[in-house]
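Researcher: Let's continue the batch. This sequence belongs to Homoserine O-succinyltransferase, and it's 318 residues. Same format as the previous ones, please.
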Amino acid sequence: MPIKIPDQLPAASTLRQENIFVMSETRAESQNIRPLKVLLLNLMPKKIETETQFMRLLSNSPIQVDVELLRIDDRPSKNTPTEHLDTFYRQFQGIRERNFDGLIVTGAPLGLVQFEDVIYWEHLQDIMNWAKDHVTSTLYVCWAAQAGLKLLYDLPKKTRKEKLSGVYWHKTHKEHSKNPILRGFDDSFLAPHSRYADFSPEFLAEHTDLDILATSATAGTYLAATKDKRNVFVTGHPEYDSHTLHNEYVRDVGEGMEPTVPSNYYPDDDPTQEPYVSWRSHGHMLFANWLNYCVYQQTPYDLDHFSESAFTKDDDDE
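Model: Same format as before. Here are the structure tokens for Homoserine O-succinyltransferase:
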């Protein structure tokens, strides 16, 4: 969140150069505050586990965030009680006339499935197209990032030969160091991945106009965004709990898939030992920045008057 100091205070210029958000007195006097309306489209099978992970990251903000849960369709779930879905989740038809400050689209275990073979692909396209006119900023996570790139840039599905699983070092890109999404990031940081999708920085740079904000020598592109910050792509899983990668590994071993041990996750790469968390602080910082700079600082105060004008206003961040 910003600090408010006198417009002419010498520290204001210095702090802005250090990529710290300083709000002028003039802007602060006219600023209205209300709860943010964020929609979570949960595509993961274990919905209770996933919704808890994302709620944890969304809670790390001084702004009140009103979260609503959205399901992709009304098919029965093998991993989530029907009573839970009926009580807490909404259908798209029930919210499509409304506007939201933010939308999060989770990953899905569909890494080896072609888009046209995904049973709800057309419905997902409808929701993503709807978001263009009804949502201030959309955050695509893991498989959803690949789906979003297909929708917005018509990029083909690119699949790795082997599953990427583990916790990897990433670096922020200096040419985008002033991007507010990166505020507070270290030059290098750790984040988990669990995917077959391939996000080559070179391929994205050649075929899109995205700002590529963070990459890994092993995992490729990790964080990218459109220049207006209305679409943010995270190819990993900053929301993962300490044992999520472990549970996936045990599941794949049980199914006879002979998976590789998740990299840089267990002490000494020994899956009999307790894994340790090395990405939690980064995950909280990323979601706090998205909520603040991509949503709160961009969204109209009155969501009933949602329009493109909300994204062309002057911004002290830039």
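Researcher: Any comment?
Model: Confidence is low (pLDDT under 50) at residues 309-318.
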